[in-house]
Description:
Elements: H1 3-10, H2 13-38, H3 51-68, H4 72-77, H5 83-106, H6 112-140
Amino acid sequence: MAHSEQEKNARDVPAVAARIAVALVFALNIQCALQFVLWPEAFAGAYELSGVAGEAAVRGLGVAFLMWNATYPAVIASPRRFRALYVVVLAQQAIGLVGETAILLGLPGGHEVLAASILRFIAFDAAGLILMTAAFAWLRK
């Protein structure tokens, strides 16, 4: 890339903001995913799971997180070029938020630890969706 093109890209504040927003959510998602894959026993209890089956379920959730985040790197690299993929990232985040909320609302009483675990995902996904949507809106201006 030519020097003047690098300077132009560095001054594209909305694109830089979009990269930062998506990269932040991506980094936290990957951290969670890797923890679930590598140390599922540390998280199984929060989902009322135990033993080999509980560890496999949490590890599987970690793998699903990794799959979900396969779309993020291209958006981080070039949010303007991969605008359609950015919309996919926002849709994925919204689907996660709606799904987690539905799961929480469907829980019967007496599952406080499980509800608290789901609430943490809801809070993170809502914050991530707001942050990435705001950056996307700014990028479109």
